[in-house]
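Listing S7. Sequence submitted for prediction.
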Amino acid sequence: MERRYKISIIRENTNGVKRNGSWNGIIGTLQREEADLGLSPFAISLERYEAIEFCGSITGDSTGILVKYPEPIVSSTSAIEVFSIGVWIGWIISAAAVVGISVILSHISKKFKVEADERGVVSHESFAWYLYGVLISQGSYLPSCPWPLKLLAATWCIVAFVFVNIYNSTLTSYMSVTYQRPLINSFSDLAASSTFKATVLTGSIQDIDLLGSNSGVLKILADKIQKCSPDCRRFNLNEMFALVLGEEPYVSIVPWTVGIAALKKHNLEREKCRLAMAHETMSWKPMFMGVPKTSPYIEEINRESLWFIDTALFDYLHAQYLKKPSQCRLNYNAKGVSTKTFKNRVILKQFYLPFLILFCGYFLAFLQFLREKVCFLIGWRC
């Protein structure tokens, strides 16, 4: 059976905004019965439900933040960032404790004459130097000492072996991976930022949620958007995307599917990563088709939407159109940081800290040399 239909583009580029008691956009067109079906999926709100009928659940959508693609993070302190500060502090304390215990054991051995000669006394400088040599896998000479000190040194060697090998293997992978995190990666980041502005599509469910918020992060964002209106409340998605791509610090609060469409368009057209979706999403809502309250097609649309799901067309839609494109994808971890294999060579900036430590070592050695010469000239014992 042949069916004829006409697709019209409404004058206002919005789902619908209620002003002075009347709706514009798609909702206004359906309410005036100038169309039989709104092709744009809607999320339900009380005001919308009072104006039109919702039927035919086809998908669901979340709210996300469209941001500029983040630059790779290259750290000049990557040589020590392999482990956390707590791990390094723990190792320093452990080394100091081992040296202290060795000195105590050595003096106890001497006092109670556990050893027959003075070889039982090991200075803390000698033992500390031995531990350092083991830690950097260079080895060192340990003077003859009693068995308690030998056991203590053996234990340190085993633990240092594990620590050093973990550090070496992790350092290689750490310096061959780039870390990326957008400056605005959550709604809390956006609310706390005094620099970034957020845009929202007028009449969208995101706009409605923000206007209806009474507290918390959404209320802060709603106030910020209200202050910068009309720059922040737009009627055109392309204008919102252009602001994010521009020089000024803008982000866009958009439905997840809209954000994915923007990624596919702007990241592929120039073969350069330009846009990304922030890590945090919120406010997942089911989406429905909109029809007039008096529509005779409600039952038919509901039946066809169930058929759409039962025949796995919904899964096909999600796999083909609602997933992030593989190009420029940021695979976030639990902390909102994306990691990616670094194809370029390791750069000099990553070795700034080791070179700084090397320079400090040279400088201290030079100062010690001067100190010894001065002491020799004036006849002091240094």
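Caption to Listing S7: primary sequence and predicted structure tokens for the chain studied. The radius of gyration is 34 Å. Confidence is low (pLDDT under 50) at residues 114-120.
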